[in-house]
């Protein structure tokens, strides 16, 4: 088969939340962009599906009106320990509940309508030489690009190709998610701790309840199935048991992904600018992954456009600036999330942690602020 070659200025690998947001930013600013995505739309993703209001001003700047998707306003946060102790606080900024099924599809349609070139294919190889990227696709197509942005998610075969450090380390985390119908309060996002993990519950559009939980694989593999683990472990938290008993599944089977890594990732790898989960993951306990993905797209697009407009003199200057901005906005959040998640993995620490929070409830609000940013 003859190889087809094309040339583009900006190429984004991955059309999820961060990739689509970056594409829309470029298009609004008058820069043509090409997106490569191996998946189809719409489809469900393992995600807490809570979007902090900190990114709503930016989405408005992008001319994106999410009201047509009927998101659920969320303003209250609830947390419980495995033994049933419970705390509740007002969210400092609040947010919305919206499914990735609806949001990603909406952004995808907006990108197409605004002139994004979309390629449904898989990247098989990628190299950089003489200031130009060469990207090989499974269809035998070859693309030459001036700038490449990695937005392909938590882990991918491309990470192996790039020999990224985190991909060499085995991760203990497994995530499981499904939608349900049933009773759950409007305006609330709840995180319920259980032995070996924690579970997030909140509403999304169409009165659906999203249940997504993260569990240590070593504790999960003691049981034969997801339902058995749920009965034997999740149900020990009385609040979680009450919620789950009142819900009816809307998926034939829950969706699950393994090997979720919270190891430090390189923000720039082989001159590829990484955004969203490809650049780094914050623990889902913090509820800020979606907002961080969108914000990272904004930071990256700004750096790239300044480079292409010659306002940043060299590629290395652009890369340095993007690393600095990513670390400035996200590094402390990711670190704080790691500490909090580490506490939740240990039963004795969780009990002490809860006693402190019950005595000083304002600390819970302070913790939330540590993992969230100001409106952008």
Describe it.
With 376 residues, the protein is α/β, with parallel strands linked by helices. The protein has a domain of 217 residues: 3-Layer(bba) Sandwich (FAD/NAD(P)-binding domain). 34% of the residues lie in helices and 30% in strands. The chain contains 11 helices and 17 strands. The strands form 2 sheets. Strands 3, 4, 5, 10, 11, 12, 13, 14 and 15 form a 9-stranded mixed β-sheet that branches. Strands 1, 2, 6, 7, 8, 9, 16 and 17 form an 8-stranded mixed β-sheet that branches. α1 packs parallel to α3 and α1 packs parallel to α8. The longest helix is centred in the C-terminal third of the chain and has 30 residues. It is globular and about 60 Å long.
Say what the CATH topology of one domain is: FAD/NAD(P)-binding domain
Order of helices and strands: EHEEHEEHEEEEHEEEEHHHEEEEHHHH
Number of helices: 11
Global outline: globular
- Computed structural class: alpha/beta
The end-to-end span amounts to 48 Å
The name of the CATH architecture of one domain is 3-Layer(bba) Sandwich
Strand elements, count:
17
* CATH top level class name of one domain: Alpha Beta
Helix content: 25-40%
- Alpha-carbon Rg, integer: 21 Å
Given as residue ranges, the uncertain stretches (5+ residues, pLDDT < 50) are: none
Largest β sheet strand count, sense and barrel closure: 9 strands, mixed
- The CATH superfamily of one domain bears the name FAD/NAD(P)-binding domain
What's the pLDDT, averaged over the residues? 92
* Beta fraction: 25-35%
């Amino acid at each position: 088969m003859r190889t087809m070659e094309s040339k583009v200025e900006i190429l984004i690998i991955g059309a999820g939340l961060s990739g689509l947001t970056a594409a829309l930013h470029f298009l609004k600013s008058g820069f043509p962009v090409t997106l490569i995505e191996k998946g189809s739309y719409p489809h469900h993703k393992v995600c807490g599906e809570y979007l902090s209001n900190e990114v709503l001003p930016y989405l408005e700047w992008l001319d994106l009106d999410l009201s047509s998707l009927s998101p659920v306003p969320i303003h209250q946060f609830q947390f419980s320990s495995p033994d049933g102790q419970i705390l509740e606080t007002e969210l400092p900024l609040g947010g919305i509940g919206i499914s990735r099924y609806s949001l990603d599809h909406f952004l995808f349609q907006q990108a197409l309508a605004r002139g994004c070139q979309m390629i449904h294919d898989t990247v098989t190889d990628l190299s950089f030489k003489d200031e130009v990227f060469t990207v090989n696709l499974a269809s035998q197509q070859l693309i030459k690009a001036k700038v490449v942005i990695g937005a392909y998610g938590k882990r991918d075969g491309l990470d192996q190709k790039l020999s990224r450090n985190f991909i060499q380390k085995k991760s203990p985390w497994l995530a499981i998610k499904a939608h349900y119908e049933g009773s759950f309060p409007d305006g609330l996002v709840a995180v319920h701790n259980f032995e070996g993990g924690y579970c997030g519950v909140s509403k999304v559009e169409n009165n659906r309840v999203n249940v997504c939980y993260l569990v240590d694989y070593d504790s999960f593999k003691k049981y034969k199935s997801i339902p058995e683990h749920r009965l034997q472990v999740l149900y020990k938290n009385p609040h979680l048991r009450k919620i789950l008993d009142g819900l009816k599944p809307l998926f034939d089977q829950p969706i699950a992904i393994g090997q979720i890594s919270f190891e430090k990732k390189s923000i720039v790898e082989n001159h590829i600018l990484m955004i969203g989960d490809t650049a780094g993951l914050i623990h889902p306990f913090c509820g800020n992954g979606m907002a961080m993905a969108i914000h990272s797209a904004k930071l990256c697009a700004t750096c790239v456009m300044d480079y292409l407009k010659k306002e940043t003199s060299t590629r290395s200057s652009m890369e340095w600036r993007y690393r600095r901005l990513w670390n400035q906005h996200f590094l402390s959040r990711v670190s704080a999330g790691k500490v909090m998640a580490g506490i939740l993995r240990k039963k004795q620490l969780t009990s002490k942690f809860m006693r402190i929070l019950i005595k000083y409830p304002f600390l819970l609000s302070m913790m939330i602020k540590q993992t969230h940013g100001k409106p952008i």
